[in-house]
Amino acid sequence: MVNSGFNNTVAVAMSGGVDSSTVAAMLKDEGYELIGLTLQLWNQRRLAGHEGMPESVQGRCCSIDDVYDARRVAEALGIPYYLVNEQERFERDVVKPFVSEYLAGRTPIPCSLCNNHLKFDQLLLRARQIGADRIATGHYARNEYDPERNRWVLKRPADASKDQTYFLFGLTQEQLSRTIFPLGGYQKPQVREIAAEHGLALAAKPDSQEICFIPGGDYKRFIDAYLDEQGESIPDTTGELVSTSGEVMGRHGGIHNFTVGQRKGLGVSSPNPLYVIQIDNASHRVTVGSDSEAVSKTVRARDLNWISIPEMRVEMRVRVKIRHRHDPAPATLRSLGDGVVEAEFDEPQRAVTPGQAAVFYDGDEVVGGGWIV
């Protein structure tokens, strides 16, 4: 790792989970001076019991329990700890865009929005304010400096099942140069063992699998409750449900109820399974079709960020990941100009969804990524 005169003080992003807590314990063993930071992003009790939302939420990211766990670990390790309130910015930069995208018939990724527009920016800013040159997080990813390219490179971790590089495609060279990912070379069971060896009480704490501000993963209820709290109502986006040939099969209650690739809850009967093929925000039409019609040969992306290369100059072979649980598929990537690229898959891929990210890989390296259009 290249060292550009960084001091020995590192700010650890502590979420209250086993991963970030283990990072703190590992780095302390390595002799770093540590400061614990927790970004308070969302008040989990804010919409509790509102419009069908759960009355209480426990053990979820951003909960009071998590803040308590993070503080307790910091005390056990004997390191300073600060709680930073970023709720206003999180709502502005993550929650409101999430709601707007869903209402427009797209399927956003709030974790990528949070990393790209809030978390790493604010962590590095706060770290510098308290005397730390670098931050460390519990993400499963690797980053290293390549002197030949004079670039920092983001790589997939040893534990492929925990790979979080898909959510980190927006990181800049400056952010990568000042971030440490200590868990990149470990399997998750090893991390729990390290936590237990350090006597961390949360070594067996379950992982959070949900979006931090949407308990239960029920997007529709969250949007209903959030808009009601804001004194707003869901806009009327009711419209026609049509086949790929244009046949009207029925009407639907709003485009925010659908996502590309969806099979269940379409509101129409058919002798063969139907899938959402396209959502048109302008006409409010939702197009459904067969399994064979739910695949795409190409994907286009905009708002690009390049990591392993400074910019895309020539056509290149990559593997493209179009959602978190998608196995990156071989494709040819080419520029269309005006900040848009197109990847042509070797084999058609299911449910290419506007609003999600397309992340490009060359082996374990993240070449870059952008937002699907």
Task: Explain this structure.
It is found in: Cytoplasm. The active site is at residues 114, 212. Keywords: ATP-binding, Cytoplasm, Disulfide bond, Nucleotide-binding, RNA-binding, Transferase, tRNA processing, tRNA-binding. Helices cover 24% and strands 28% of the residues. It folds into three domains: 9-220, Rossmann fold (3-Layer(aba) Sandwich); 239-289, Adenine nucleotide alpha hydrolases-like domains (SH3 type barrels), CATH 2.30.30; 296-372, Beta Barrel (Elongation Factor Tu (Ef-tu), domain 3). The chain is globular and about 65 Å long. It has helices spanning 18-29, 64-77, 87-103, 110-129, 173-177, 188-197, 219-229, and strands spanning 9-13, 33-40, 81-85, 134-136, 142-146, 151-155, 179-180, 239-243, 248-252, 275-279, 286-289, 295-306, 316-321, 329-337, 340-350, 357-362, 365-372. Strands 12-15-14-13-16-17 form a six-stranded antiparallel barrel. The protein has a five-stranded parallel β-sheet with strand order 3-2-1-4-7, sandwiched between helices. The mean pLDDT is 91. The protein is an alpha/beta fold and 373 residues long. It contains seven helices and 17 strands.
